[in-house]
């Protein structure tokens, strides 16, 4: 009799879990006579899933270059399971167009044309990525080891019946018996928060239009008429999608601007279609995410980790009660500075004084927040423009408050132009050195967070701050998108509102009203308001029927952090103030912060119930859990945390399922 695993979610995360199960299956005794069935359940296209499905606008791009996307492990990945190499997106495209994939054809139409022209530094469309992910899953299925079988179910899992075995109910009415359940659904929709319900009700009462947080590709943007004044809150990747769909998606075009300043990188002019709205946008930080770099390191790759590595993380874990900003951030910043200055000294000798060895020895001896470090940098790096300034990076508009909206437009355009220059001109390759170090820091911080070493207050406040800062630095759009944003700003179709954006429902005037910390006494009113961001995670408000049912039955818990008196509600950071529930008890000395994330045991990703017990045969992995794993695919040769997590989970599941399968054949 075969054993069974049900993986809910057949996008790149689910496919990655299947690949890791297959890689280790033989080691755990799976084979002829001890078979294993793996069921992939997802209403969206297998392999690609919802985010990367083919059925979306051909204008939407990935924010990674083709050579920086892989679904396969390599020798850099430190895991217990076997390394099973495979092609990156770029290598796959080259092999396909050069006929090195028997039985596979170049896709038809626009995607095929794109594939034939694809270079390693090209930002592919999401539709091309869907073909790669589809091939990855088919390849994994075609190379499954003896005894492992994969089954696809193009539907939704809606419930779970306890028992031996457990039984997963599907929307089709079918039921699947399973010995282990893996929830790998990725970003989940959630019902609106109380504030979002109030905004929707206000819009309905006054004949306005409100778009709650959601995947931009799923929004009914046709409801926004031409010429409409629109307030948008959020300047991350969802905002970039919004801009693409509202302007290029409505027939507008971008052309090279021959009259532009030649020092401005890639200046464009926007040619309107006549169907555009006017978009007023702001956010907490008030600026778009940083552009992706478009150059290579001039010097050797910086040796990492240097100041924050496994040994330091183990020591923090041993000590416990760690405050990320107070205890770890100085090492995080110093590590990123190490990558930055390593590249500056190796790639730009004309802009430094002395040798790298001398600088590195002195740098190692000083604290990040010290006069000695500032003096060292000033002495060895003469141009202040070459100094790494995290405070400026984190809050670039902190000193900006003007009473003239046109002045703010100029400030923001100058900021975006400078950011573009730093990410396309190889004079600034030190920025890429910092980025390489940032990836190393991210992996170490996630190890620390996964070990529950942070204080609850720091976990609630600082992890959100850090992930937002990391995303703004590392997960930004391709440079051409910011060039287009500048063109739209110059044409008057995008208006910047700046930092500290606040949007309110004005009952007296019957409109939405926006103001910010960057505009003194100036606001804007609109009849359309778009939340340009994904919904915050929430187990208690989950729109996923299985997740909601498990939570209602107490079999799946939402992470709740007891902040004690460390972070009273009136002074908590924005991450706490905006939580689904921050409940003060008694005199306010105890605050419970609901993160909205599925609670799992960090060591093996087992679901934790509301009694704090880890379930022996139920697992979850991905951004909807309190072990905050980044994207399901990643850069090659980076010892990717995502692949390490997939491997650990797969082996934990096999340890539950496979030994029983082996005993059945005895």
From TrEMBL:
Alphabetical list of InterPro entries matching this protein: HpyO/CreE_NAD-binding, L-asp_N-monooxygenase_NS-form
FAD-dependent urate hydroxylase HpyO/Asp monooxygenase CreE-like FAD/NAD(P)-binding domain mapped to chain residues: 6-187
Short name of any one Pfam family annotated for the protein: NAD_binding_9
Record-given protein name: FAD/NAD(P)-binding protein
